[in-house]
Write a structure and sequence with these properties.
By secondary structure, the chain is an alpha+beta fold. 52% of the residues lie in helices and 8% in strands. It contains 19 helices and nine strands. The strands form three sheets. A four-stranded mixed beta sheet has the order 1-2-7-4. A three-stranded antiparallel beta sheet has the order 3-9-8. Strands 5-6 form a two-stranded antiparallel sheet. Strand 1 and strand 2 form a beta hairpin. Helix 6 packs antiparallel against helix 7 and helix 13 packs across helix 16. The longest helix has 32 residues.
């Protein structure tokens, strides 16, 4: 009898669980919102460990275009989230109605993992206050102040490449570009000379690559922490690996202590942060300085190196565009008497190449926003409840033929001023938009210009037998990265 009762109880519990899951997965159907049918228990993200988020997002975007809807529903585990595909609605959410969805919903844990509490991740009034305090450090004037550092690293980069290439050779392009960006960010963000060209296995570069190439958690866990951040913080789960986190924190602590004791000043990002620390109204803590230096490093180290790598890859396949970019660089250098700040700001065709690369390979394939309060979507009866995530599929939008004919082809003329003026502003979102647009956008562009100009002015690039065509994307990285090495042939001009 007891066994029968236990069997009935288990059957009842199982039926209740099945009913609960079905009700959860009926969320979008009940609201008559088009959605992609989920599979228990992962919802629509069962393949995140095998496929890059960019590929998953693009697949769903194409599948749902036929519905004609401005948005469609997805599920992560049992949690519903909404993907926005209409450009006018995206603009409204990112800019006009920003206060309803102001946060990214990126997992951070200031108590156990202080470097994770940086400007990209933090939320609410804390984010507003810190963004206001940091914005003046990224003006064009501050970029000009830091340019000699970029220039000096560019000169070292040129010497390294000249020696490495000789009369012509195959190079793993991502590797050499990472060395360049590591030296720039090491100097500008942390005030240290990394010398990655002569010491390719330096701790700075090693730990920098660990952050992106070998994150602490697999994609599945990272998505889980984004959906259940409070649970993660309660369980004291860290998002960064301990060794690189401690390394970067100690660099900041030692640098701040040394400069405050000696009064040494350098024209770099660290000096700007120390100035804010001295200001009674700003009063940045050491943890805040370390976190901002870390995200400055992260954004500049990975996204800029990837952008330059992808751009060189495309120019190697398109010799006509490569020659135009090279001529643009050489004309600017001649006009301004060298690779000066003014010259770097006067390379319009190179900027077109950089932007076209950002279109094809945005570092963040999906932009995320989280509702701070209930938000009724304009011209609909659909309400995004407080706490729900919204996805904006930037990678998929960038490859939509309605906005970019032959979208998979590299064509810098898409970014001629008159062409850009006739295209919806939210058809191009490599840095996001609105109040949470990337604060370091100017610096990232400048870094890419210097790196690309240094290479193009001295070398011709072409494909080699080891070049992977077409590219595949890594499913492990937190940003859009090529899967495996990327080889090209370089020959001196």
């Amino acid at each position: 009898m007891a066994v029968q009762l236990l069997g009935i109880l288990l059957a009842t519990v199982l039926l209740l669980c099945v009913f609960y899951v079905k009700r959860k997965y009926a969320y979008w159907a009940d609201r008559k919102v088009p959605y992609i049918r989920p599979r228990f228990p992962y919802g629509n993200f069962a393949e995140t460990d095998q496929k890059a988020l960019a590929d998953i997002s693009a697949e769903y975007y194409e599948r749902m275009r036929a519905t004609g809807s401005r948005f469609f529903g997805l599920f992560f585990f049992l949690q519903p989230l909404l993907t926005i595909t209409d450009l006018d609605l995206i603009k409204t959410i990112l800019i006009k109605d920003f206060n309803y969805l102001p946060d990214r919903g990126v997992y951070h844990n200031a108590r156990d993992d202080p470097l994770s509490a940086h400007l990209f991740a933090i939320e609410g009034n804390y984010w507003r206050s810190l963004r206001t305090r940091l914005t003046p450090t990224f003006t064009s004037g501050k970029m000009k102040m830091m340019f000699p550092t970029l220039q000096a690293v560019g000169d070292s980069f040129a010497e390294f490449l000249t020696e490495a290439v000789g009369t012509g050779t195959e190079l793993e392009v991502k590797d050499v570009v990472v060395r360049f960006t590591a030296d720039i960010i090491g100097s500008c963000a942390f005030g240290i000379d990394c010398n990655s060209f002569k010491q390719p296995n330096s701790k700075f570069r090693k730990f920098g690559q660990q952050v992106f190439d070998r994150p602490r958690h697999r994609t599945f866990m990272r998505l889980f922490l984004r959906l259940f951040p409070e649970t993660g913080r309660t369980l004291r789960i860290k998002s960064l690996r301990d060794e690189p986190s401690e390394f970067f924190y100690n660099i900041v602590k030692d640098t701040v202590s040394h400069r405050e004791k000696t009064g040494i000043e350098r024209k770099d990002f660290m000096s700007l942060l120390i100035e804010l620390r001295k200001n009674d109204e700003m009063n940045l803590t050491l943890n805040e300085i370390a976190a901002q230096a870390f995200i400055f490093f992260g954004a500049g180290f990975e996204t800029s190196s990837s952008n330059q790598t992808y751009c060189l890859y495309e120019l190697a396949q398109n010799q006509e565009y490569q020659e135009k970019a090279r001529n643009c660089v050489l004309e600017a250098v001649k006009k301004h008497g060298g690779l000066t700040y003014e010259a770097a700001c006067d390379m319009p065709y190179l900027d077109q190449c950089i932007n076209e690369t950002l279109r094809l390979y945005p570092s963040l394939p999906v932009l995320e926003r989280k509702a701070f309060k209930d938000y009724q979507i304009p011209d609909s009866n659909i309400v995004i409840p407080k706490g729900m995530k919204v996805h904006i599929p930037a990678f998929a939008i960038h490859r939509d033929e309605r906005y970019y004919p032959n979208p998979n082809l590299f064509d810098p003329d898409r970014f001629l001023p008159e062409v850009v003026a006739n295209r919806h502003s939210c058809a191009f979102l490599p840095f996001g938009d609105g109040p949470r647009i990337c604060i370091g956008m100017r610096f990232g562009m400048m870094q890419s210009r210097v790196g690309l100009a240094t290479i193009l002015s001295r070398f011709k690039l072409s494909l080699c037998p080891r070049t992977t065509v077409p590219l595949e994307y890594s499913s492990d990285s937190t940003v859009l990265q090529p899967k495996g090495a990327l080889w090209l042939r370089l020959e001196p001009l």
